[in-house]
Structures are given as structure tokens and as C-alpha cells.
């Protein structure tokens, strides 16, 4: 490794960071992380802190899982790459598809299409959903509906169904035929409705209205995160997703669950949709599939969709979609090991308990700190607090987060700030004392921000 001065000086001279202003990254060196163990990360100056971000919602099993690391190095030694494009495949790809089908059987999934990450998985679901309708002769169904505040990655398809202008405005025009409706976001919504059950009904009514307006026979799919992650951990009322499912069924629209964050235990269940008792038609997964150790993802295909493709007699079901790294054997080997470890460790109960501890701790912080307008969570290790400059007007506080982040780091925790939201998503194997450490680092950060 180069020395610390070289790295600090050269950080953003030769690379652009995702989701950052290049000049800002040149002016202020970000935290340079050089090592990690368990649920802690270590920076270039030797400081160790608890990782309250889980890498980026992905390091579900912590940083020291030797089984996943060994699977990666063993596979690299044996076969570092071969393609899964028609005509060839590899043994880890076959084994993983078998394992994943078992893992998501309860969610109605039948097949896997492998990708290199979350955006790829979303793209795959969107493209295959259009093809599904075309195979059936339903050529008019090309549009997509989604939720404002939703995040579905940054490929043009995913960004077109995203519900946050930050990822769209500078890249417009987006893909035509994508329409967003208000999210079931109790703290802020155009209906001024603070009762989650009533809000759920209002959003469902607006979805039905949008479907009628667009014409049901023009819509390919509705995509949503079962719990909205990057948009600020927005947890829909339990009635919401079952009613979405009903509407999709009534109007012949496919339901895509974006499980890139919620899959593999983060929400306290193996999939986010299981919280709501819903089976989607497709699921986009990534992140926790390899615990972030290596880029990988899978679009899971439900029985209804799989049957249409596999029983096709028109010749239109040939899949004209895929990536060089689809089913990459090293990624697949990592995912097989990660699935086995995820099953063995079974972090669901810990994620649920520690998630409740974090959520309760944040609610306590809200009583102490005026800056906190809203606290959201309660379903696994997905929690957020939204900062406001005035509780009465709910004006989002867009600058306090950075102060909180810096001070929290000084006090032992890496947190993540996105706009006015502080997002907390540590590894699912985190302990009680480490959750307390994150809460007290947040407390110190909020105290500092209040006096800044
Ligand atoms: C719900 C959701 N979908 C898709 C993505 C995109 O995944 P990736 O960044 O791996 O492309 C993300 C990333 O955070 C996500 O949270």
C-alpha cells in the first residue's frame, strides 16, 4: 500500500467518486478505509470505528467471514472466469441457481438470472417484464409505475423509475413511459395524512387512478422496494403491498420487488415481501447475496413469468439481455458460501432485535434533539432519522447531517448521510453494545450539530 500522504493527495485527482461533486472530493479527502474486522472498520490513520453503514447496506455478515473469503480464493485458483452466455456455463453458476431457488421458494421464485449488482438486477427485471408481455402477444404493455422516494439504481431504466430528482434531473430525458406516484410516507405526503393505514388506502387509490389514467393495457410492471431504503427507510403500512398485489393482479401488471437492500435478512426476514405476505412476480437482489465481498446480483423470476418464457412456441422468448459478468464464477462461488453462512448464522432474529434497539434508541434521541423531525425503522437493521431545521414547518435540514457524521466518527461510528436523512444499516451480526456505541456517537454528533 502507498503511504498515507500519497493516498490523501491523490484521492480525487485521478478518480471521480460516485454520488459526489468532483471538486468537493478534491478539496476534502474522504475517509480512507484500509482495513476491517467484525463490524468495525479502520482508516488510514489507524482509527477504528463501528460501521453503522454496513459498507453500503451490504456487509450483512460483517467483515471477517472466512468461509466467503476462502470460497473466493479457491474459485480464483480453480477457474477465475468463464461465461454463461448461451453454450457455456460454470459449476458455481448451476449450484447457486439451485440454492437461490430454494432460498426464495416461499416468495414464489422459480429461476435466477445473474447480474453484477443491484442496478443490473433492476434492469433485468424491467427488460424481462416487457418481454413477458410481448411473448404473450401483449405488445402495448411497455410502461412502468413506481413510487416517489424509491431508489432502483442508476442505469437508465432504474433511474427512470427512481423517485428522487437527484438521480434524474441532470440526466434527463429519462426513459419514456415511467410514472411515479406518491410514496406511503407518513411524515410527508401530498394528502397531509398522518395515519399510516389511511395513507396506505390513499396511495392505493392514487395507484388505481394512475393505472386507469394510463390505461392498464399499456403498463408492463409496478416496481417498489418492500421497505424503501435509500429514500429514508420508509416503511409502508402492512396493508399496502398486499393491496398493490391485488391491483397488479386485477390489471394484469407484473409486480417487481426491489429486494436489493431488503433481501437476505436485513429486514429481519429472508425477503422484504415476506413481511407483507406477498409474492411478487420478480425480485431484484444483490448486496447481501455476497455480503458485499464481491460484486454480484440476481434477478429472481417467479413461476408465472418463468412459464411464459419456457413454454413459448413463438421463438420470442430468447433472452437478448445479459452481462459479461452474469454468473461470474467467483461471484457465484462467493454467493454459494454467503448463502450457506447466512443460513448457518441466521441473522434474522439478531437483525430484528438489534433493529428494535436502534429504533428505540433513536426515538429517545428524538426527545432530546430538536433537530430530529422523524425517526423510521422497526423492521430489522434499516433505520433512519430525518433532520429538520424547524419541527413545526418540517423544513428539511440539509447541512446538519455532515456535522453529525463528522462528530459521530470522532465518537466511534461511521454513519451515512443522504440529504436530510441519516441512514443506519450496520452488519446484521452487530452486538448490543455496538448498537449502544452507535447511538451514543449519534448523540454526540447531534449535540455538536445543534451548536454549530
Ligand atoms: C433498492 C435498491 N435497488 C437498486 C440498487 C442499485 O444497486 P447497485 O448500487 O448495486 O447497482 C440499490 C443500491 O443501493 C438499492 O438500494
Strand order of the largest sheet: 4-10-9-8-7-5-6
Shape: globular
Report the helical percentage: 25-40%
What is the count of helical runs?
15
What is the CATH topology assignment of the largest domain? Aspartate Aminotransferase, domain 2
Ligands bound here? pyridoxal-5'-phosphate
Give the number of domains.
2
Tally of strands: 16
CATH architecture of the largest domain: 3-Layer(aba) Sandwich
CATH class of the largest domain: Alpha Beta
The share of residues in extended strands comes to: 15-25%
Quote the average pLDDT: 97
Could you give me the name of the CATH homologous superfamily of the largest domain? Type I PLP-dependent aspartate aminotransferase-like (Major domain)
Q: Biggest sheet, open or closed, and with what strands and sense?
A: 7 strands, mixed
Radius of gyration (Å)? 22 Å
Poorly predicted regions: none
Distance between the termini: 37 Å
Output the structural class. alpha/beta
